[in-house]
Structure formats: structure tokens, C-alpha cells
Amino acid sequence: MTKSALQIERAAYQPKLPKALRGAVKVEKGNPTESVADQDAIKALFPNTYGMPIIQFAEGEAKAFKPINVGVILSGGQAPGGHNVISGLFDGIKNLNKDSRLYGFILGPGGLVDHNYMELTSDIIDEYRNTGGFDIIGSGRTKLEAEEQFEKGYQILKQLDITALVIIGGDDSNTNACVLAEYYAAKNYGIQVIGCPKTIDGDLKNEMIETSFGFDTACKTYSEVIGNIQRDCNSARKYWHFIKLMGRSASHIALECALQVQPNVCIISEEVEKENLSLDDVVTSIAEKVAARAAEGNNFGTVLIPEGLIEFIPAMKNLISELNDFLAANAAEFALIKKSHQREYIISKLSKANSEIYASLPEGVARQLTLDRDPHGNVQVSLIETEKLLSDMVAVKLAQWKEEGKFVGKFAAQHHFFGYEGRCAAPSNFDADYCYSLGFTASVLIANGETGYMSSVRNLTAPAAEWIAGGVPITMMMNMERRHGEMKPVIQKALVKLDGAPFKFFAANREEWAIKTDYVYPGPIQYFGPSSVCDQATRTLQLEKAK
Known about the structure:
Elements: H1 5-11, E1 25-32, H2 39-45, E2 53-59, E3 69-74, H3 82-96, E4 101-105, H4 109-113, E5 117-119, H5 122-128, H6 147-159, E6 164-169, H7 171-186, E7 192-197, H8 215-236, E8 240-245, H9 252-261, E9 265-266, H10 269-274, H11 279-295, E10 301-306, H12 309-312, H13 314-329, H14 331-335, H15 339-349, H16 352-360, H17 363-369, H18 386-403, E11 413-418, H19 420-423, H20 429-447, E12 453-458, E13 468-473, E14 478-483, E15 486-491, H21 501-515, H22 531-534, H23 539-544
Parallel strand pairs: 3-4, 3-6, 6-7, 7-12, 8-10, 8-11, 9-10
Antiparallel strand pairs: 1-2, 2-13, 4-5, 12-13, 14-15
Helix pairs in contact: 3-5, 3-20, 8-9, 9-21, 11-18, 13-16, 15-16
């Protein structure tokens, strides 16, 4: 395999570990926990894994461990640093006993069910240290929720003498991990299940999970490209760039990128929902910024748009919710309707208010709202070209204002969607260290007999030596939500807090950024050089921790 100069150098990078993980470890347990909501329902569904204490590791005395066989699964979309979670897990179980073995299940949870696996040896692991992507074993989106799947998984785990399984994924994947841990505990199968917090979207976070891995690298990757666009924007001075960014359920990526690059406009979905804004309100707000800059002679600018915005506009959210339930219940019938008649069919089946909204949407957006759902039964918002919808509507409004003498400039738009570009980037030093620590932490949780826990590494704005490693019960993060028309236990998504320090800083500065051309150009991720350049946590974390 041909390698770039950077790959060769990065292979030699030794990730930093918290002090407590560098030698023998002792376990400190806190008080019993409860779920964030719906406590009775969650406790009834998870009687064997509910109420467990938070775990923190400290330096301890050395003791001997027997060899263990561990399985690992990459689940869901890619995030920078996944390979380092696996290398940290590998080094961790080898540190416990050199005869321990690690097996990777191929292409996600489906590999467990279909008995598709490979042993991960040191030669393989060394090829993937500090690299982006999930290609060491691949990933998949198979949901683990049926007893038949659990039993098929158990067959191969038993055959390989695997006593612990680590699932690296986002909120839905870790929900699956919790369900699996509960099932195997109830059956007394002797299989531990540990989760690791992955998602570039940043919506898997709480007091114990300060950030999900991959968020730092993805935001730095997007911010570099946005900075490049802003430099071009300020050079050509003739385009408004509408940039859609990944993040269907929360606006963490858009907010973090805004904090890094200082665009003219950044829409925060959570604020749109709280203020009960309509689509026209959002469009008017952007058009006002365009007009204000045009009055200063600046017919250019940047607009950052979260991928999931459309679902946060209350009227659109109601429409999509009804559409999700209707299409879940009538999927077979809808599949038989000719594409040319699908719009009329949907209009005839929805409630009056939602039918009117749906009928008012441009043909393309209406069609995108009825495309195949994702595995969780939700509309695939990444397929909705929100950036084009908004720029088209802004153009119409500005043309109207021009006739009325309210707009004196020119308006021409360029469109971008940054998603896949950030998911497999080579991890930043922060993510390389954080992910390695998460994997190593998972090995210590396994060594101490824990199950139903998520690997937790905190105090992340401090140097890595001062990070706090441990575990948090997955049930602690759960609540009940409607999926496919039914109430299901899921990990509660973390939205942007409008009373939090990151949003407050953004809100205090955005009016100035809107009118002035006050762009920041972060440049590419730096892997070598002074710590002030190479090892910084996200602006979000720094503001949250008041650093």
C-alpha cells in the first residue's frame, strides 16, 4: 500500500493517555444513577442494567489478569478517530494480558449477526493507528433490536470465546449496546457490552460525555474549507455562499464552525424552534443581512445552515412528524403509487394544516420529504437541499424589495454541502488522544467486569494527563421517544443550549459579524508544532469550560 508522507509520520504518533490509565488502575464507584427522563419506563425495560453507579479510574496497585477475547463493532456513520478507539482497546487488553485477543465484526452490527469477523492482530492494528475512516473493519447501520439477532450474535461470541463486546457508535448505536447488554445480562450469558461515544454531529453529550469523538476533527475540517471560501468570497466580492453543514438533530457543528470562522449569518435550528419562526421568518432574516451589507457596498457573504434546520421550523416539524407516522404505517401502499401522483396522494392523506404546507412547498423539496426513511424511520434531511431552498427564497424576496426600493445591491448565490468531507479526515491530535483513551478505558471497564456502560473521558480542556477516565451507565442517558410510530427507549440527544456559553458568545457577536467582513481563516489541521496550535479542544468545549 502506498502511503503519503503524512501517513508515515502519523503512524509513529503515540497518543497521550490520562495519568490514571498509564499504570495499574483502581475503580472508584459513585452513587446509583437514574435515567434523564421516564425513569419508571426505563427501569422496567432495563432491570439488570438500571441504576448502576458512575465509575472513575484512579492510580492503583498492579494485579494479574487472565487473557480475554474481546469483540469490536463500528456502527453508523464514520467519525475521525474510530481506528484509534480500536487501537486503544487493543493495547488495553494486551496490557492486561499479552495473550488477550481482539476480533472485529465486519461492516457493523450486521457482521455480528451474520458471523462475519476477522481477528485484529498487531500487524493490522499498526497499519491503522492515527488514521481516519472506519475501513479497518467497515461500518454498517443494522439495528440490533430482535431476540433472534441477539441469539445469533451469542452463537458466534460463544464460539470464539468472546466475553466482552465493544460497540463504537452514536446515540442509536449505544442504545442498541444497552439493549444487548440487558439481554445478555438477563440470560446470564456472561457477555459484557461496552459503548463508545461516536458522532461528528456532537449531539451525544452530557455531564459525563463532554463531547463525542470526531466532532473536533470534522469541525476543524469544515472550518478550514469555510475559511477558504470566505477568503475567496472577500476576494471576488460577488457571491453569497450558502453552506449546509452536517447535523440533522442539533446545530453543534454549525455553531462550532461559526465560532471558528465568524460568518455573516449562521442559523441555529434550536433558536428557530424556540422563537417559533416560520420558513419566511428565516428567509427574511437572511435577506435583511444581505440588504444591509449591500447598502455598505458589500454584495457578498457567507451563510451557515444546519442540515436538520427544516425539522426545527415548527410548522415543518409538525408536517414531517405526520409524514413519518403516515409513511411508516402505509409504506406498502405508497410504494405502489406512481411518482407523478405521489404529491397529490400525500396532499389527500394529511391533516388540513399539514396538507396546505406540503402543497405550498416547491416540487423538489416536497419530493425529497417523501423519499425512503433512514433505518430509524426518519426523513433523510441530508437529501433536502435546504441551502438552495433558502437562497431561492431569499432571491425572490430581494427582487420584491428591489421593486419597492428597499434593496439596492446585487445578489448571486453559490451552494455547498459539507458532510462526507469531514467524516473520515485524519484525526486531530485531540481526537487521536481522546479516541485512544476511550478505547483504553473500555478495556479497563471490561477488566473490572462491567456491562451496560459507556466509556467516559472528561476534563478535556486540560492536558491529556489530567483527563478523568471512567464509565457512565448507558441507561442514565435514556428516555422514551416515538420511533416508527411506537414509543422506544433511546439515548436523549443533546441539543444546542441557548443559555449555554457557546451560543451566548455567538449571539453577542453575530450582529457585528453580519455587517462587518470579520472573517477568520483557521487553516488546515496542524499535527506537528506548538501545543497552542496542535492540541486545542473545540471553541465549544473551551467556552463551556470557561477556558
